[in-house]
Amino acid sequence: MITPMRSVTSALLTALASLCGLLTAALPAHADTMLCDQYASTTIQGRYVVQNNRWGTSATQCLNATGGGFTITQADGSVPTNGAPKSYPSVFYGCHYTNCSPGTNLPKQLSSIGSAPTSTSFTYVSGAVFDASYDIWLDPAPKTDGVNQTEIMVWYNKVGPIAPVGSQAGTATVGGRSWQVWTGWNGTNNVITFVSSSTLSSWDFNVMDFVAQAINRGLATRSWYLTSIQSGFEPWSGGAGLAVNSFSASVN
Fold it and tell me: DSSP labels for 111-140?
């Protein structure tokens, strides 16, 4: 038989447990991070960096960094479509202009990389001019600052009268998919761009498959370094609502 004192204690404990449950339920979820400064950045998942990277315009651009990636919440202004885009908001693994993601093993020499599996998914919107692109940066040195010598771009989607740097240099099959291949010089580095033959909203691939294409075309060697891998957008006009829903990357 339960004594009256134990009954009171049990009741108090039950009441406290209920109160704690109510307080826990009432606590707000962890807030996302808003990035509006030109080169503002934040860390997500403890291993990736989301960056605003509004390098080509003075117009306002804001990102909401989420647990999986980011959403562009404001994207003012536009730039001519025959020139460079207004920004490259992205999420990345590795080192970009001294900003290195936590615990990254990049830069890493290409000859020592067995595979670099990665995955990303996008949300697209109407009324904007943009490409959705995956960026792969290579350099002869293990750079953690400044411009790398070769940039590989993988365009999942393009909307509007825009084209990659340079001119079309043929086609290629990479990762089981067909791509237009463009090569050129943007004034600071070599660029090789792979444009998907159809719109991709998500895709998993091995970064080293595209690196091999760059090497075969004389734009890198196996003694070079992989410095960062990035997923994001190049908007020329508008862009609010564009989102990287998810991103994962590792270098083995």
Answer: GG-S--EEEEEEE--SS-EEEEEEEEEEES
Q: Which residues are catalytic?
A: 151, 234
Query: How does pLDDT run across 176-194, given as a tens digit for each residue?
Result: 999 999 999 999 999 999 9
For 212, half-sphere exposure in the C-beta direction (CA atoms, 13 angstrom radius) is 12
Distance CA 133, CA 194 (A): 9
**Residue type for 101, please?**
S
Closest by alpha carbon to 90, among 135, 149, 60, 123? 135
- pLDDT tens digits, 19-73: 344 333 333 334 589 999 999 999 999 999 999 999 999 999 999 999 999 999 9
Give the list of residues 6+ apart from residue 243 with CB closer than 8 angstroms, or none. Answer: 69, 70, 71, 72, 122, 123
